[in-house]
Amino acid sequence: MLTVALAGKPNAGKSTFYTAATMADVDVANYPFTTIDANRGVTHVRTECPCLDRDERCGNENCRDGTRYVPIELLDVAGLVPGAHEGKGLGNQFLDELTNADAVLNVVDASGATNAEGDPVEVGSHDPLDDVDFIEEEMDLWLAGIVDGNWEGVERKSRAPDFDLEAALSEMLTGFGATEGDVAAVLRGLEYPDDPKAWTDDDREALARAVRRRTKPIVVVANKVDAAPAGAVDRIREGTDKPVIPATADGELALRRAAEAGVVDYDPGDESFEIVGDVSDDQRAGLDALRGSMDEHGGTGVQTALNAAVYDLLDRITAYPVQDAGKWTDGTGNVLPDAFLLPAGSTPPDLAYAVHSDIGEGYLHAVDARASRRIGEDHELTEGDVIKIVSTAGP
Ligand SMILES: Nc1nc2c(ncn2[C@@H]2O[C@H](COP(=O)(O)OP(=O)(O)OP(=O)(O)O)[C@@H](O)[C@H]2O)c(=O)[nH]1
């Protein structure tokens, strides 16, 4: 499963975001909710379910009236402070948790009401742009430390006659989520000596920064937008080249709780909500204020941030394997039972391997269920494709 990690300084709102995003919505997620451990849970990206193109909605537990929620893993990394890569505030330990992340949501306090250590200060007195930069810097220097620590091993390998720098670096960085392709692409963009012994600290740092940028892309979540001074989000956008998503994690949590209690009609990622139950005057005032913020920013931003990480930064598409190309079902009649988030450009054999390595190895051909026609193994899948895979290993 894809893993997205929440990182940020203390008090930025990571735990609130995490709690909201991993909350099992009774309406949407009527299935066993998996908490992997205290800070690792399941959340979803939101997309259109292919069943919208059929007469009836599919009724899948992850489909809400044609809105499909596709599971991903969410990791809540405890607050990082400047100097974390040197171990400040247990930072090394926390940074190590990012090893498995495919993308990072850098949660910043857009209201500027907490300083670099996360202590409360007057609203607007801390520049959120500092927080955007420091998380990236800590991640880069953390990886640089790992590269430094492993360099002797690379030097040792370089004595072998068949030494291959690209292969040695790929081996070192594979645990960090870098493929050989990533390492090759990064090396193409760098200037460096052929002999690892001639590499300087700067060479290693440049490698670490480039690998980090490629393998842990960052979305900036401008949180607490409900309490932020006017123009705060624009200022953050002007100061960074990363996508910036205005958000109110608090607001999302309130809405999910209210939806669970049956007092509002809200699905994660909706741009607004409706009050459908009894609420006190105080609650109504709070919800009205939240509605104002959502109207301004197109929702609470929690779902938008998750979707931005997966569909924009990681460039994924959703593909739906089925066994019956006519009914779009699996062997037991479930309609559109599974959804896979594949890299854009994936082909039917890639989907087969994602389903199971045996299915991939026994791949024979595929059928585009929507068009009812066979597709070649080089055919590029697109968002929402429903595909029947025929495999010697298949049922
Ligand atoms: N106004 C406002 N406050 C928020 C929002 N999200 C979180 N907060 C508040 O910010 C404070 C810190 O939130 P947490 O979620 O505990 O922050 P954290 O980043 O997990 O902090 P650490 O666990 O210390 O790393 C809490 O009082 C939250 O209620 C928001 O969208 N708007």
Automatic annotation (TrEMBL):
Cellular component GO terms, alphabetical: cytoplasm
Pfam families: MMR_HSR1, TGS, YGR210-like_G4
Molecular function GO terms recorded: ATP hydrolysis activity; GTP binding
Ranges in a coiled coil: none
Gene3D superfamilies reported in the protein's UniProt record: 1.10.8.470, 3.10.20.30, P-loop containing nucleotide triphosphate hydrolases
Segments forming domain OBG-type G: 2-267
UniProt KW keywords: Nucleotide-binding
Family under the similarity heading: Belongs to the RelA/SpoT family.
Designated name of the protein: OBG-type G domain-containing protein
Organism: Halorubrum sodomense
